[in-house]
Design a protein that fits this description.
This protein is mostly beta strands and about 325 residues long. The protein contains 2 helices and 23 strands. The N terminus and C terminus are likely disordered.
Length: about 325
């Protein structure tokens, strides 16, 4: 009976000693693995910087004309079909009375659903002709950017169908009525193409309207510039190699870069902080497992916790 008691006491002492050692190791390890700040340096560069409004849309026709009948008559002949390209003056429909209906402008025929022998009435809609020479695209502009643009302002347009080409255009219309959605109000801005080349109605577009541009300016990635109650600043190393704040003044910016107007020159280096990950918790977990967290930690005769939180005995003791 004494042997059994002695064995149990010995096991408890060993567990307590292991936990103590684990706690000491954790504290020591925690001190030596405190998160350390590391820095990456970035140089001030000189170049062109622009701020622009961008948006996506599709190619649309600036004009869609509806052809209406000027007669009450019967159709004797239809000379076009949907998707036909016509010129101004081309014959579209012939009537039994000898009258003809012609195209008043060039474009693409659509919404034609008539048939020979059908009776038509005065002012009846017969078809549409979509102007395929005067093309536009439409983007949505945030209300805060609306004062920065005006009709006639130049824009550049790219098309998914022609990824290597850039098309020029101008703002032809700014909507007077906005659309409110999810806390934001936007206005439709229509841009007319200067040259349509091989562009077709319905192609997807991306448009850019430059609202500010400066050349030969000092600039930094916008992520390097911070602000406080004293203004804008960056992190730099002083003459002794210590990291310190340096106040700067900035100019125009976009989503990527910001102009530096005072405080830094081309080639100056600024710092971006990186925080190292602390691994102390993993060290603690490993030591706790070694101190009896797993079954058989003491050569097959230790004590641990079972899945229900009770004490389980492994191995055997001799009497």
């Amino acid at each position: 009976m004494k042997k059994k008691v002695i064995s149990v006491i010995l096991a408890v002492v060993l567990i307590a000693g292991g936990i103590g050692a684990a706690t000491y190791f954790y504290k020591k390890s925690n001190k030596s693995n405190v998160s350390a700040v590391q820095y990456t340096s970035i140089k001030v560069t000189k170049g062109s910087l622009e701020n622009a409004i961008t948006g996506s849309g599709s190619v649309e026709s600036a004009n869609v004309y509806t052809i209406r009948s000027g007669y009450k008559d019967t159709i004797s002949e239809i000379d076009v079909s949907n998707n036909s390209i016509v010129n101004a003056g081309d014959t579209l429909i012939k009537l039994s009375s000898g009258n003809v209906i012609t195209a008043g402008q060039a474009g693409i025929v659509s919404n034609l659903s008539l048939y020979v022998g059908e009776n038509i009435n005065i002012n009846q809609e017969l078809m549409n002709i979509t102007d395929n020479k005067t093309l536009t695209t439409k983007i949505q502009v945030d209300e805060t950017d609306l004062p920065k643009i005006k009709s006639g302002q130049e824009a550049t347009i790219t098309l998914t169908a022609f990824p290597k080409e850039t098309f020029k255009g101008k703002i032809s219309q700014i909507s007077n009525i906005g659309t409110y959605s999810n806390g934001v109000t936007t206005f439709d801005v229509t841009i007319s193409f200067d040259d349509i080349k091989n562009i077709k109605i319905g192609m997807s577009t991306n448009a850019k309207i430059v609202i500010e541009k400066k050349d030969n300016v000092n600039m930094l990635p916008i992520s390097t510039v911070k602000s406080n109650n004293r203004g804008k600043f960056v992190m730099v190393r002083d003459a002794n190699g210590s990291v310190t704040m340096k106040n700067i003044e900035t100019g125009i910016s976009n989503e990527t870069y910001v102009e530096v107007t005072k405080g830094l020159e081309e080639g100056d280096e600024v710092l971006i902080a990186k925080v190292a990950t602390n691994t102390s918790n993993n060290s603690m977990k490993s030591m706790m497992q070694g101190a009896g967290g797993n079954r058989g930690s003491f050569g097959g005769s230790g004590y641990g916790r079972n899945g229900n939180g009770g004490t389980q005995k492994s191995g055997s003791s001799s009497k």
